[in-house]
Amino acid sequence: MAYQRFSLFPDSPSFKDLFSARSLRYRWRNGDPLITTGIMAVCIVVWIVEAVLNLVWQGGLNAMLNAGMLMPATAVHKPWTFITSMFLHQPNSLWHILFNMLTLWCVGPVLERMMGHWSFLALYAVSGLAGGTGMMLWAVLSGASGWSTPVYGASGALFGLFAAILVVYRRIGLDIRSMMIWMLINFLMPVIMPNIAWQAHLGGFLFGGMFTWLLVSGLRVLRGKSLLRRTLIYGTVMVIVIIAIDLLCNAVNPVNMALF
């Protein structure tokens, strides 16, 4: 009689098979939420690095946060922070990373399967960038304190996904009551917990909703084009608009004005 090695999950694929190129290609073609999983993996790995640095090297943690977080006063001079800030979370709080990743896993796979990998990635990126733009607009409206407010986290992008769910579900006539409850919880978080950048939430929500509306409706002349082509066209337009707003906001940046 032949004996096999004991496995706690005998019918599950091995770690090697799960991450093999063949497996990844199959799951990509099958529409599995690989982009969602990849974003979650990057956020979790970055948070682990932050948490370790918080325990053993405060100087390294401060350098990492200063280099990656977005601050309206310096955002245009450090444009990469519009992206890197989306992958940073509070190093001394499990709640921040846990809640954001749970939210992403609730809505990300649904949208990625509906929209396809590249359109979903474009939606996430546009929404995340717009979260930074929300902070830039708030800095203009609120004065000096707004320009010096640092922010980081995936919330701006996540609220863009919420808006996309609303647009898509309304378009195809699905019941969105359960999703509305989850969205309401997220919208109330700035009221319940301090130091949450609701401005980034609002920016991501508005731009994510607009981008999704353009994809599912949009200009009549582009409706017959493939989703990928529409994503490229509308995504490019949205990014240009976001950059233009950021530059206009930065024109009244008190840091710049103090230099002249």
Automatic annotation (TrEMBL):
Signal peptide span: none
SUPFAM superfamilies reported in the protein's UniProt record: Rhomboid-like
A single GO cellular-component term on record: membrane
Peptidase S54 rhomboid domain segment(s): 78-216
Name of the protein in its database record: Rhomboid family protein
Protein's membrane topology: Multi-pass membrane protein
Subcellular location: Membrane
Record's keyword terms, sorted: Hydrolase, Membrane, Transmembrane, Transmembrane helix
Assigned protein family: Belongs to the peptidase S54 family.
Known EC number: 3.4.21.105
TM stretches of this protein: 34-57, 94-111, 118-139, 151-169, 181-198, 204-222, 231-253
Highest taxon, organism lineage: Bacteria
Leading EC class: hydrolase
Species per Swiss-Prot/TrEMBL record: Bifidobacterium dentium (strain ATCC 27534 / DSM 20436 / JCM 1195 / Bd1)
GO molecular function: serine-type endopeptidase activity
Principal location listed in the UniProt entry: membrane
Gene3D superfamilies in the cross-refs: Rhomboid-like (1.20.1540.10)
